[in-house]
Amino acid sequence: MRRNGLAVVSLVVVAAVLALLPFVLSGYNTYLGAGVGIFFIAILGLNILTGYTGQISIGHGAFMAIGGYTTAVLSRDHHTNLILTMLLAFAFCFVAGLLFGLPALRLSGVYLALATFALALSIPYLTLQWSTYLGGSGGVHTSETKSNVWLYGVAWSAAAVLFALAWLILRGRVGRAFRAVRDSEIAAIASGVEIGIYKTLAFAISAAFCGVAGSLYVMWLDGFAQPQEFGIDLSLSLLVGAAVAGLGSLWGILAGAVFISLLPKISTSVPIIGSDHGRSVVYGVLVIVVMLALPGGVAGLLARSLSGGLNRESNTVKLPESSSQ
Amino acid sequence: MERVKDLGVTVAVLLGGAIFLLVGCLESTQFARLTVQGVALGMVYGSLALALVLIYQATHVINFAQGELAMFTTYIAYQLIQWGLSYWEAFFATLAIGFVLGVVLQVTVIRPVQHRSVVATVIVTIGLFLLIDGIVSWRWGGQLLSIPSPFGPPSASYDVGGVLIEHLWVGTVVVVLVSLAAVWGLFRFTKLGLAMRAAALRPAAASLAGVRVDVMLAIGWGLAAVLGAVAGLLAEPNTSFFLDPSFMQPILVYAFAAAALGGLESPVGAVVGGIAIGVFQILMTGYVPEIGSNLQLPFSFAVLLVILLIKPNGLFGRAQVQRV
Predict the structure, then answer these.
(1) How much is the pLDDT for B17?
(2) Nearest C-alpha in A relative to B263
(3) How many of the other CB atoms lie within 10 Å of CB of B317?
(4) Mean pLDDT of B224-238
(5) Which residues does residue A225 pair with via DSSP β-bridges, in sequence order?
(6) Does A122 touch chain B if contact means CB atoms closer than 8 Å?
(7) Are strands B157-160 and B163-166 parallel, antiparallel or unpaired?
(8) Which among A283, A204, A32, A41 has a CA at the least distance from the CA of B130?
(9) Is the Cα dihedral B242, B243, B245, B249 positive or negative?
(10) Which of A25, A255, A324, B2 could be disulfide-bonded to A29 (CB atoms 3.0-4.6 Å)?
(11) 8 Å CB contact of B130 and A128
């Protein structure tokens, strides 16, 4: 119970700080803060699939692309309210996730990783092919752009709602089924868990979360949905963020989101991490180091230091076992 | 019985494909030319696919950095040529460097995580992907670099009964076949190869019999890096004329497709799958103009997905039976 209390208190504190930040921050920093919120949502979505259900996806940037283009096209052609397009992006990507998740059922483990990798590489080509609707390499521009404070508010409100939703899903029956699928498919089947339904559901939910993130991402990019923004780099950086945050836990996501959204914004005058290539090196090294030395990511670190501080037995977050073999 | 029936289907599919290609080649010189080009490209895919299969067989992990590793070794070859080595000197030096690189990576970053979980290992290979990509872009990025083809100028061709076949394609096929024969010979005829097969098949039993499984896995990574280096060096003249840090990414996807088509566990399947995908891709772009360069990758991917839905374990794979 004390642990729950601590969680609630820290959530309230973080939420309060996040709510007050735009009153303190400059315009550009508010904009960066909105970016953190967007990646928070995307990592949350990926974590539901990879961290909780043990299904690895290297292509969630593709769902962000679907969400983003949904917003851009609707806004361009019908001047749809941007918040409404965000909800539609959620719905579209939920369906897209179902459609992709169904065949993915037959592709366990590495085959799924391969399929999602190919999906992520394919998406930019598709937007080039249907350039009449999707604007080709120039992209699609929404009919309106919003202020930084608006972006910050909407992004973090969506993040809060989706975080609560994820928490509700994961704490109950569905979340238990997800973790059972992750830890051992055979044991899950034997216990009466319909693994097909839960795997597809996890795929759809995580795709929908990433769809919302993609929709916000386009608004954040001054309303431009462009193929090069949704390349393989995006998908890989989501995975980097999820690994840094800690797979299978909700408590490190903020750190992962801060990491992948702010690192690319560091001034180009800074040596090494200021350039794209240097950043790629830093990402790579950091992911490897985290996986080798800190398998639970930031969440694992938090859990360990908490349990150390309260003098309890260690309560590190375990990485999902492979579910595929 | 089920296995025999499965193999029958596979043989029928392959035979059908072969007959189709043969008839096509006899009917049209254009078709024959495209087919040979497709086989050459498919050999490149097959070689990289085989690298993936070598690692998958031993550890049930896909190395997502395999393509970037191949790209890296191709840049090393470029650098060696710049330093004055001839193409073939650089070629063999690169293979040696690739081997060392593969072994070192396995020992330093893969070994510590490989017993933990597939997810963890895959994420580490993604980390390697980013790391190598960053290093190469940093050192060589943004320049137009190319390696002179060892098989003469791009247009040089043999005339086989009215069909113009480029030297490059023949050279590609020969080089890949020689490397495949070398790898096959290693596994089939040497004690090291036997130990490696044992380590991949039954690690525990092999180690009881005195095989140093860890060493074998590291050598497997080295060999895979060598095959990848062959693929990278040949892919450069076959797909584009310039080196670019991302030039292996689509090739990696096709190699994945080849390996998955062959069944991920089957070395023969990887090569056959590679050739099938190469020929399919070249014929498709040659005869179906609607599928332009933009749709090549998505379309091949969609076809692969359909095949996997029908035969989830690939053409040569076995259905997985799991003991509880």
Answers:
(1) 83
(2) A111
(3) 19
(4) 88
(5) A140
(6) yes
(7) antiparallel
(8) A283
(9) positive
(10) A25
(11) no
Angle between helices A148-171 and A195-220 (to 10 degrees): 170
The reply to whether B185 touches chain A by the CB within 8 Å rule is no
| From B131, B260, B304, residue closest to A281, measured CB to CB | B131
- Whether B210 has a pLDDT exceeding 80, the answer reads yes
pLDDT at position B101, please?
Answer: 94
Q: Is the pLDDT of residue B6 over 70?
A: no
Rounded to an integer, what distance in angstroms lies between the CA atom of residue B93 and that of residue B88? Answer: 8
Does B156 contact chain A (CB < 8 Å)?
no
To which residue do tokens 């990879």 refer? A50
Amino acid B55 reads: I
Residues on chain A touching B298 (C-beta within 8 angstroms): 122, 125-126, 129
CA atoms within 13 A on the CB side of B224: 34
Helix (H), strand (E), coil (C) string for chain A: CHHHHHHHHHHHHHHHHHHHHHHHCCHHHHHHHHHHHHHHHHHHHHHHHHHHHCCCCCCHHHHHHHHHHHHHHHHHHHCCCHHHHHHHHHHHHHHHHHHHHHHHHHCCHHHHHHHHHHHHHHHHHHHHHCHHHHCHHHCEECCCCCCHHHHHHHHHHHHHHHHHHHHHHHHCHHHHHHHHHHHCHHHHHHCCCCHHHHHHHHHHHHHHHHHHHHHHHHHHCCCEECHHHHCHHHHHHHHHHHHHHCCCCCCCHHHHHHHHHHHHHCCCCCCCCCCHHHHHHHHHHHHHHHHHHCCCHHHHHHHHHHHHHCCCCCCCCCCCCCCCC
At residue A95, the pLDDT reads: 94
Candidates A230, A38, A53, A110; CA nearest to B126 is: A110
Size of interface A-B (CB pairs under 8 A): 157
Do the strands B163-166 and A140-141 form a parallel or antiparallel pair, or are they unpaired? Answer: unpaired
Six token digits for residue B224: 């895979």
- B264-287 per-residue burial string, b: 16 or more CB within 10 A, e: under 16: bbbbbbbbbbbbbbbbbbbbbbee
Measured distance CA(A205)–CA(A98) in Å, rounded: 9
Instruction: Lowest mean pLDDT of A267-271, B69-73, B161-165, name the range.
Output: A267-271
Q: What is the pLDDT of residue A191?
A: 83
CA distance B249 to B247: 6
Examine the pLDDT at B217 and tell me if it is beyond 60: yes
**Spatial separation of the C-alpha atoms in residues B115 and A154, rounded to whole Å:** 42
Task: Give the C-alpha separation, A81 to A146, whole Å.
Answer: 11
CB crowding A222-260: b at 16 or more within 10 Å, else e: ebbbbbebbbbbbbbbbbbbbbbbbbbbbbbbbbbbbbb
Among B residues 34-93, those touching chain A with beta carbons less than 8 Å apart: 56, 60-62, 64
The answer to whether the CB atoms of A283 and B294 lie below 8 A apart is: no
Question: What is the helix (H) or strand (E) element at residue B281, kind and residue range?
Answer: helix B267-287
